[in-house]
Amino acid sequence: MASLHDLTAEIWRDLGPHADETVSVEPAGVVRVRTGPSSEEFSVDADDSATDATWKVADQLQAILIEARHQPVPTCPRHPRGHPLRAVGSDGSPVWICPEDDVTIATIGRLHTT
């Protein structure tokens, strides 16, 4: 499994951060997100599989950014004005899916390279 730092950086790129949004990985698996003047953090379970850790980190980061921006992120390319993608573990792989029709869009961390 990639390091938590590398994993978080790949997911962060998928989410298209704004200039006033930053993410950092602290010791002991704590991820800290700053959105403008606000800051939130969450912990990553060291016992999670690589797939579970990936989709869980993506889900947490996504929730923080949706709350801060009041808009879907990342947007579903199948329904760009409708909803965000959903992070899931599917068949052993962490993926972004369209929640409306359960179509896999991309592997988490590779959204903008597919």
Helix content: 25-40%
In total, the number of strands is 6
Lateral strand order in the biggest sheet = 1-2-3
Terminal CA distance reads: 21 Å
Counting DSSP H or I runs of 4 or more residues, the number of helices is: 2
Query: What is the global morphology?
Result: globular
* Integer count of domains: 1
Pick out the low-confidence regions.
none
Q: Approximately what portion of the residues adopt beta-strand conformation?
A: 25-35%
If you average the pLDDT, what whole number results?
93
User: How would a crystallographer describe the biggest sheet?
Assistant: 3 strands, antiparallel
Rg over C-alpha atoms, rounded to the nearest angstrom: 13 Å
Order of helices and strands: HEEEHEEE
Coarse structural class: alpha+beta
Short description:
The chain is of the alpha+beta class. It has helices at 4-15, 50-69; strands spanning 21-26, 30-35, 38-43, 86-90, 93-97, 104-107. The chain has one domain.
Description of the molecule:
This protein is of the alpha+beta class. The protein has one domain (4-113). It contains 2 helices and 6 strands. The chain has helices at residues 4-15, 50-69, and strands at residues 21-26, 30-35, 38-43, 86-90, 93-97, 104-107. The model has no long low-confidence stretch (mean pLDDT 93).
Sum up the structure in keywords.
3-stranded antiparallel beta sheet; globular; about 30% helix; about 110 residues; about 30% strand
